[in-house]
Design a protein that fits this description.
This protein is an alpha/beta fold. Helix content is about 30%, strand content about 20%.
């Protein structure tokens, strides 16, 4: 691996999944030791799937206090939980069904509800109740996993969306006109940036240009707006995704 500040470049996707699983186990151990529970927010997509599958293996899963772990989601499409495009379904198949976590500690976004705004408000209330935040307080996740789209979006925070300017709501309904499934729910920047640790997982040569752009700018694209105010930001990429970044070229 090669590292530069908050970027770690892994040899390939399998190495990245291994590194990410180690990060998660370490974060879970620290959170349970220091605060009695691990508040973990999951991402969708193919890169996190490999990480979840690795985390479900006994070598990793047996080191996590699943009875003290609470699971949340960063975004979800407007589909039922058994739909092939559901982030919940992917996480359930790859991880949640394979580890001894109480069902009552898994909080899925109900993107399939007809009233998207109501579903967003309900999920915000669920988060607040589960974590115990008071009115006006932001929930603080111990770890948030994020992916990166080739247009610079992360979670369901897309370029040009009015939700990028949200300062009060922790969860919002969004409509992404260009997406195959346009209606979605997403966490907003205030809650992402309140997290103790945010980890981007990015693989593939098609992501090389956007990785270079996001890591070299200080605003504009949604992924570049993820900057924890009192936490750690970590980028894990494979070599292909970091091919245009100086840390990769210096290897």
């Amino acid at each position: 691996m090669a590292s530069d500040a908050n970027l770690t470049v892994c040899a390939d996707p399998a190495t990245l999944a291994e590194a990410a699983a180690h990060l998660i186990v370490d974060a879970a151990t620290e959170a349970v030791r220091d605060r009695g529970r691990f508040l973990f927010c999951l991402a969708g997509g193919e890169t996190p799937r490999a990480t979840y599958a690795r985390l479900a293996l006994p070598a990793f899963s047996e080191r996590v206090r699943w009875d003290r772990t609470w699971i949340f989601f960063g975004d979800e499409r407007a589909v039922p939980p058994d739909h092939p495009e559901s982030n919940y379904r992917m996480a359930h198949e790859a991880l949640l069904s394979r580890v001894p976590i109480p069902a009552s500690q898994i909080f899925r976004m109900r993107g399939d509800q007809t009233d998207a705004e109501g579903a967003a408000a309900a999920y915000a209330a669920e988060i607040a109740a589960a974590i115990g935040t008071k009115r006006g307080e932001l929930p603080r996740f111990d770890m948030v996993l994020l992916g990166l789209g080739i247009d610079g979006h992360t979670a369901s925070l897309f370029p040009g969306s009015p939700v990028l300017r949200e300062v009060f709501r922790t969860v919002a309904a969004v409509h992404v006109a260009a997406a195959q499934i346009p209606q979605r729910l997403t966490l907003t920047f205030p809650v992402l940036n309140a997290a103790a640790r945010v980890v981007f997982l990015v693989t593939g040569p098609e992501k090389a240009k956007i990785v270079r752009t996001v890591l070299s700018e200080h605003g504009g694209l949604p992924a570049a707006l993820v900057r924890p105010t009192d936490g750690e930001l970590i980028w894990l990429t494979d070599r292909a995704a970091a091919a245009l970044h100086p840390v990769s070229q210096a290897r």
